[in-house]
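Let's study my pick:
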Amino acid sequence: FCCTNNRPKGHPRSSCAERGSIELRDYMKARVIEMGLSGIRINAAGCLNRCELGPTVVVYPDGIWYHMETRKDVDEILELHLRGGTTVQRLLLKADA
C-alpha cells in the first residue's frame, strides 16, 4: 500500500503526495510488471498517518513500513523485500517513529 494522500499545500504535516508518492507508486506498479513479480498488487492508500516521514509504503501481509524517496528506493524494496524476502533496513520505518 502506497500512501497517496494529498493535503493542501503548506499544511503543517505536509503529505505523501506532495513529496512525490503518486509518481513513485506509478513507477512501482510498472516495475512489478517489468520484473515479473506475480501475485504482487500495488495499491494506493489514503493517509497512513506517517505524513512527516513520507512517502510511506506498507508491505502486507508482512506489516513492514518503509519510507521511499527515489526510484532507487522503490527498486530496492521490490528486489530485496518482495523478491528476496529481506527487510530493507535503511528504508525501514520504526514502530515508534
In short: Residues 1 and 43 are 5 Å apart (CA to CA).
